[in-house]
Specification:
64% helix; mainly alpha; 107 residues
Length: 107
């Protein structure tokens, strides 16, 4: 297993996810009732805010998973599926570094 490539992939994903979290935090700031927008526009803004809040929660969960994987990268059992104890293919780890399960167990 090429741990250097995996470490780079995890670092890159952590950076991207942190940027996404900051972006979603900006989008989920409260909408001032004093802003002069119409009723329909305000309802649309509230709906978009709730979608962005869900995206923020998902990004925060992904960041936590990435940090957990990062902390275990030097363990002997790194890259092993938590469920079936078989090796997770390197391609899956590179594409989705926060994965702790192989494709079959993740279904």
């Amino acid at each position: 297993m090429n741990k250097r490539a995996i470490k780079t992939a995890i670092e890159t994903e952590i950076s991207k996810t942190e940027v996404s979290i900051e972006h979603y935090k900006e989008l989920t700031k409260p909408i001032s009732p004093n802003d002069a927008i119409g009723r329909v526009s305000r309802m649309d803004a509230i709906n978009n805010k709730s979608i962005n809040e869900a995206s923020l929660r998902q990004a925060e969960m992904k960041l936590n998973s990435l940090k957990r994987v990062w902390s275990k990268i030097d363990d002997d059992d790194f890259g092993m599926c938590l469920k079936c104890k078989q090796a997770i293919p390197v391609g899956r780890i590179l594409i989705r570094p926060e994965s702790l399960l192989c494709v079959n167990c993740a279904r």
